[in-house]
Amino acid sequence: MTESYLSLRRLENEILRELLGDKILLGEMDNPIKVSISQFYGIEINDFAVTVAKTALWIAESQMLAETAEIVHKDLDFLPLKTYTNIETNY
């Protein structure tokens, strides 16, 4: 799941880079990020694996936000951490 998220966000960042080039956007703009962790779903048997998956996704989101911020020349807030209920334990 984490690798899928990273791949889609990298692709999205490449598209943003092509669209924006070296432009610096001034003023308010909509969030350029369309791929979100909330769009990913997962089921795991082990509680620990669920926790690891959520943590890995938070780290991946942080990395991709930093990369996107460099492209759009705007600070993108990562905190506070969000709880995603789309990854759950199934016994």
Structure in words:
With 91 residues, the chain is mainly α. 49% of the residues lie in helices and 7% in strands. It has two helices and two strands, in the order αβαβ. The protein has helices spanning 2-20, 47-72; strands at 42-44, 87-89. It has a two-stranded parallel ribbon. β1, α2 (47-72) and β2 (87-89) form a beta-alpha-beta unit. The relative contact order is 0.25. The model has no long low-confidence stretch (mean pLDDT 82).
Task: List the SSEs and their pairings.
Blueprint: H1 2-20, E1 42-44, H2 47-72, E2 87-89
Parallel strand pairs: 1-2
List keywords for this structure.
mainly alpha, two-stranded parallel sheet, single chain
Total of helices: 2
Terminal CA distance reads 20 Å
* Helix proportion range: 40-55%
The structural class is mainly alpha
The residue ranges in which pLDDT falls below 50 over 5 or more consecutive positions are: none
Question: How much of the polypeptide forms β-strand, as a percent range?
Answer: 5-15%
Major sheet attributes = 2 strands, parallel
Write down the overall geometry: elongated
Mean pLDDT: 82
- What is the helix/strand order? HEHE
Say how many strands there are: 2
Tell me the Rg in angstroms.
15 Å
Q: Which strand order do you get reading across the main beta sheet?
A: 1-2
